[in-house]
């Protein structure tokens, strides 16, 4: 991971214009405003990790006193003890062996207590309930069990609880001394991918143990998933957002669009698609970047809110199709109607398995397919010549002209107009029935089964 941090910089690649965001993050972290823990929010596959690594590199290049530390929480959650994960990251910054040993000794009682207790007891400790409250909680269990062994266990646990609280104060004092001249910023990535109990305990450790001046935290995560983890641990009746708000100093969402000239907004995932297509040895010489097909791709990516990672998956499916068709499936100068239907079929194959299975079985359900194109109703011809996604929607609807169904073309005059446009998209060379055109898509599904 260290080498990756060194390699990933905004100078190397910043196609989504995110360096200005990183500059502002650093300004906040190094200011007197209490923004820690800061949350950089975003859905899975939106480029959070890459942004984080570039941000760390940028922070290192600045003339600040802050020392950054990176933790991949998902790789660490097998250890079962977030406190040890955090301490290990801090210890890596301490070259002095004696200081390291001293910090570990101060932390041991707290770590031991966290490991020995159940989740319920651990949460009570972290939430700083006093020993009497904790004793009360266990006393009811003791009375029920009536077992002397349990009584001894409770007594031992309460003793550890007192030692742990004392240890936390010593640990905080040691940390304060450690970061007095060199404050640290701990970046915790992938917290949303961790087990719910690990993620929640990590949050609580940050709040109650590492709430020390000079120790800043940045969490790179999906807060929707984090809220789900909280509800998993405490139950669905807990207001997860209010609970989360207690731990967060400042939060912002990594934007999915950026401005190229200060005015026009560009959807990052769309730009990512065409960048990957251009760089691909299989797709660089295809029809994907031309005219109507380009417009269709832009619509599919935007309407379905594809993340950067999902765009990469879509590109991979297009590459596979191009390879197994011996570079002919998406070749240039292909008939326009085939180009539209093949791209749409590959998109369905990649992201909409239910629609794919229905179409493969001969079921044409406009309600289940056409909304993928972002269309709720076909336009009137008075609105002008239809755009590519409307043409694809019309082909789907023509294949299931059942009276009463939504989105279906029923007016005779409209049917004739749409049919003329569709035939024109196939250069007048197609004589298939409306249902037969669906087979163009089914051929794609069959090809992707490697059949």
What's the number of structural domains? 2
Give the helix/strand class.
Answer: alpha/beta
Order of helices and strands: HHEHEHHHHHHEHEHHEEEHHHHHHHHH
Biggest sheet strand order reads: 2-3-4-1-5
Number of helices: 21
Total beta strands: 7
Give the oligomeric state of the chains in this entry, treating copies of one chain as homo and distinct chains as hetero: single chain
The major β-sheet equals:
5 strands, parallel
Describe this structure in words.
By secondary structure, the chain is an alpha/beta fold. The protein has 2 domains: 2-93 and 182-255, Rossmann fold (3-Layer(aba) Sandwich); 266-448, no CATH class. It contains 21 helices and 7 strands. It has helices at residues 2-7, 19-29, 48-61, 73-76, 82-91, 97-116, 119-126, 131-145, 148-178, 196-208, 223-234, 240-245, 268-279, 291-303, 308-324, 336-351, 353-360, 366-369, 388-398, 412-425, 434-448; strands at residues 38-41, 67-72, 184-189, 215-221, 250-253, 257-259, 265-267. The strands form 2 sheets. A 5-stranded parallel sheet has the order 2-3-4-1-5, sandwiched between helices. A hairpin with a 5-residue loop joins strand 6 and strand 7. Helix 7 runs parallel beside helix 10. The chain starts with a helix and ends with a helix.
């Amino acid at each position: 991971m260290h080498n990756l941090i060194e390699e990933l910089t905004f100078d190397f690649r910043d196609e989504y214009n995110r360096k200005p965001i990183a500059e502002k993050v650093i300004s906040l972290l190094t200011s007197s405003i209490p923004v820690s823990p800061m949350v950089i929010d975003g859905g899975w596959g939106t480029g959070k990790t890459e942004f984080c690594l570039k941000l760390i590199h940028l922070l290192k290049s600045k003339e600040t006193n802050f020392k950054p530390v990176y933790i991949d929480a998902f790789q660490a959650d097998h250890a079962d003890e977030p406190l040890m994960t955090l301490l290990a990251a801090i210890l890596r910054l301490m070259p002095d062996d004696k200081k390291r040993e001293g910090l570990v000794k101060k932390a041991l009682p707290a770590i031991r207590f966290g490991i020995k207790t159940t989740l319920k007891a651990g949460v009570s400790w972290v939430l700083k309930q006093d020993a009497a409250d904790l004793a009360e909680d266990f006393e009811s269990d003791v009375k029920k069990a009536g077992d002397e062994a349990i009584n001894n266990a409770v007594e031992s646990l309460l003793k550890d609880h007192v030692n742990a609280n004392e240890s936390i104060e010593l640990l905080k004092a040691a940390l304060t001394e450690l970061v007095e001249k060199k404050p640290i910023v701990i970046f915790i990535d992938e917290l949303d991918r961790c087990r719910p109990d690990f993620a929640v305990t990590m949050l609580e450790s940050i709040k109650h143990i590492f709430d020390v001046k000079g120790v800043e935290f940045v969490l790179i995560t999906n807060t929707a998933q984090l809220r789900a983890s909280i509800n998993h641990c405490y139950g669905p009746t807990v207001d997860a957002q209010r609970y989360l708000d207690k731990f967060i100093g400042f939060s912002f969402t990594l934007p999915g669009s950026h401005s190229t000239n200060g005015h026009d907004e560009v959807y990052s995932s769309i730009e990512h698609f065409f960048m990957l297509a251009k760089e691909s040895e299989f797709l660089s010489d295809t029809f994907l970047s031309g005219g109507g097909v380009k417009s269709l791709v832009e619509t599919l990516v935007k309407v379905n809110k594809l993340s950067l990672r999902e765009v990469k998956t879509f590109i991979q499916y297009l590459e596979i199709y191009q390879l197994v068709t011996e570079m002919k499936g998406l070749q240039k100068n292909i008939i326009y109607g085939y180009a539209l239907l093949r791209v749409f079929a590959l998109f369905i194959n990649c992201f909409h398995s239910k629609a794919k299975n229905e179409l493969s079985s001969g079921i044409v359900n406009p309600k289940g397919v056409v909304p993928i194109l972002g269309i709720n109703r076909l336009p009137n011809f008075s609105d002008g010549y239809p755009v590519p996604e409307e043409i694809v929607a019309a082909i789907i609807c023509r294949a299931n002209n059942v009276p009463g169904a939504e989105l279906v073309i029923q007016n005779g005059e409209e049917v004739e107009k749409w049919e003329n446009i569709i035939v024109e998209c196939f250069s007048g060379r197609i004589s298939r029935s409306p249902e037969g055109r669906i087979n163009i898509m089914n051929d794609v599904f069959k090809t992707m089964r490697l059949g």
